[in-house]
Amino acid sequence: MRLLSSLVSSTKLATLLLAASFFVNPTLAQDRTTEQGEAQISDPNVECTPYYYATVGNARYNFPTVWTVATVLSNDTTAQDKYNSISSGIPNIAPKGTQPQSLTGNWTNFTYSSTDPDCWWTYHQCTTPKLSGLPSDTATVPEPNTLGYGFDDGPNCSHNAFYDFLQQQNQKASMFYIGSNVLDWPLEAQRGLADGHEICVHTWSHKYMTALTNDQAFAELYYTVCGMCTGVDSRIDVD
């Protein structure tokens, strides 16, 4: 009887410990369905545990595969119509280099004119377009004693500490979001908007834009904006 009682007690104890471990598991205990809940997570290991966000999950097939060069989807007539309506006004500049190596900045065996006819920033840090009617890039802050913050390649799963720091310092910044990251970490993208930062497009797959064809470059920008519509704020307009 004592042996049986001991075994029952051990079984009960194991069950209680298993239940307790379930309830204190930080990943399971966190709200991963809202921006407000996600913003409360302070452990980067928990933050970087993948989660399912229904709004994005339900729309995955409306986008190119994440982290691949975007192209207009064959069934996306809205994107096709938009591209066709503007294509005649896009400069006919040939892609630089040869894909796929050029997508990551490998310009082996590619020869480019020293006159920089295309205002290629990577080649000569050009900020004034050679085509008429286009304004110069904003490359400096015109106001004296002013510092502008710009952060590339977000959103990232571990950025709560970063957002918290900017909040504590009462600072706003320009966040350049990659479309694939927005679909991977939509609640982190929403945090940037909720905190009042300026959200900017940083392409879909983060490949060298000068290596892309016109339709690829369009898709890289178009689907990143669409991703922000879906994962960040439905009020964003892709027109």
What does this structure look like?
With about 240 residues, the protein is mostly helical. About 40% of the residues lie in helices and about 5% in strands. It is built from eleven helices and three strands, in the order H-H-H-H-H-H-H-E-H-E-H-H-E-H. It has helices spanning about 1-25, 25-30, 35-40, 45, 55, 75-85, 120-125, 160-170, 180-185, 185-195, 215-230, and strands at about 150-155, 175, 200. Strands 1-2-3 form a three-stranded parallel sheet. The longest helix is centred in the first third of the chain and has 23 residues, at about 1-25.
Question: Roughly how much helix do the residues carry, as a percent range?
Answer: 40-55%
The main sheet orders its strands as: 1-2-3
DSSP E strands, number:
3
Q: Give the helix tally.
A: 11
Spatial separation of the terminal alpha carbons = 77 Å
Percentage beta strand: 5-15%
Mean pLDDT: 85
Structural class: mainly alpha
Element-level helix/strand string: HHHHHHHEHEHHEH
Taking Cα atoms only, what radius of gyration do you get, to the nearest Å? 24 Å
Dominant shape:
globular
The main pleated sheet reads as: 3 strands, parallel
As residue ranges, the low-confidence spans are 1-11, 13-28, 234-239
Features:
single chain, 239 residues, mainly alpha, three-stranded parallel sheet, 5% strand, globular, disordered N terminus
Quick summary:
40% of the residues lie in helices and 5% in strands. With 239 residues, it is mainly alpha-helical.
